[in-house]
Amino acid sequence: MVKSKLVQANEIIADTVTTGFKKMSDGVVSGFNKISDTVVEGYTKIEDKFVDRYLTKDGETVEDAKKRLKEEEKKREEEQKEKLNRE
Question: Taking the CA of residue 47 as centre, how many other CA atoms within 13 Å lie in the half-sphere pointing to its CB?
């Protein structure tokens, strides 16, 4: 069946709009990911400096201190759960 010129023009417009939207969407997502990565990296640097300055013990690396702190937090949470279960 032969398509009318109106249907053909409508398909061209639809393809153009869809392609434009995909390009715009990809640009927005890419920009968001770059900003997100930058923010997370900045936070991690600040966190590492804070842990290094205030929370590390003698001879302990930042990674070791973070691991120790997480273990201590987990232990406190477990103790709190046990305490609540006893009541």
Answer: 10
Rounded Cα distance between 12 and 40, Å, is: 42
Contact 68, 82 (CB under 8 A): no
Residues 75, 77, 83, 87: what is their CA dihedral angle, to the nearest 10 degrees?
A: -160
Report how far residue 56's alpha carbon sits from residue 69's, in angstroms, rounded to the nearest whole number: 10
With beta carbons less than 8 A apart as the criterion, state whether 85 and 77 touch. no
48-76 confidence digits (pLDDT tens): 999 999 999 999 999 999 999 999 999 99
**CA–CA dist 5, 9 (Å, integer):** 6
Q: What is the pLDDT of residues 8-54, one digit of tens each?
A: 999 999 999 999 999 999 999 999 999 999 999 999 999 999 999 99
Take residue 66 and report the two structure tokens written for it: 């973070």
